[in-house]
Specification:
The chain contains three helices and three strands. The longest helix has 12 residues.
Amino acid sequence: MYEVTCATCSNKVLVEKFSPIHTSIQWTTDARTSCPEFVAAAEQGQDMDSFPGCTALRASIDDQVRTGKIPTNSFRAEPTPGQIG
């Protein structure tokens, strides 16, 4: 997995890209308390089970994919190791 830092809030997540539409994101902190978009949605009473995710983080991931820092893997092996250092 590849480390991605959100350009908006500096949260760090681990990301694996399996296809243009399949992205696996592993949060290293509780998103509902560490991500400003998650916090705002929760404060507005939004059902967090249906919350689509953080748009700022998605943009940060997409930028990393576009620049080639995160490759698209056509395979998946378990477990996928990752570490934020």
